Amino acid sequence: MSRTLPNIIITGTPGVGKTSHCELLAERTGLRHVSINQIVKDRECHEGWDKEYESWIVDEDKLLDAIEDDAKKGGCILDWHACDLFPKSWIDLVVVLRVGSATLYDRLKLRNYPEIKLQENIDSEIMDVLYQEALESYDAEIVVDLQSNTSEDMDANLDRIEAWLKQWKEDNAQAT
Ligand SMILES: Nc1ncnc2c1ncn2[C@@H]1O[C@H](COP(=O)(O)OP(=O)(O)OP(=O)(O)O)[C@@H](O)[C@H]1O
Fold this sequence. Notes:
This protein is an alpha/beta fold. The chain contains seven helices and seven strands. It has helices spanning 18-29, 36-42, 60-73, 101-110, 115-126, 129-137, 151-175; strands spanning 8-11, 32-35, 46-50, 55-58, 76-79, 93-98, 143-147. It binds adenosine-5'-triphosphate. Adenosine-5'-triphosphate binds next to helix 1 and helix 7. Residues 110-120 are annotated as: LID. Interacts with small ribosomal subunit protein uS11. Not a structural component of 43S pre-ribosomes, but transiently interacts with them by binding to uS11.
């Protein structure tokens, strides 16, 4: 299936900077920021609320149905703390954002996360869980991990993704 625009996943542990990156990237490129959190909530792609973790229990089949048409058209920036559920055929680039554990701790503390959720997220970041998930789910050549500790990191990441997008468009224009 050919798309005239690529689909990009921006993933990583909660608090790493996915939404911040996606919003700016959407502004800079015109691609659509697809906030999976928002879709799960708005389109009720869930089986209820987990009180302990203070998060929705996602119904993945319903979620995939909800975004399938947009994903098949292309031009989506998928913003979520997991990536293994999206079909490989939909995805052109997977960006895994990374952050130091002290910085992540400060960011999550500011959100008043429950202690259990805070600790699990710090452990997940230290143990590379999201990066490994991306490597297990997609071809290694489309997976990139980028640091997101500072606003300078974010600027550099956005430049890099924009350059990748420009190249993707050139390559795919030649192919058609
Ligand atoms: N590279 C960065 N440099 C400095 N601050 C950042 C950076 N990235 C994110 N932040 C700050 O960290 C906080 C969390 O960022 P953001 O909401 O984008 O994370 P997220 O990964 O989308 O989280 P969630 O998965 O919970 O939606 C925000 O206050 C944001 O301003």
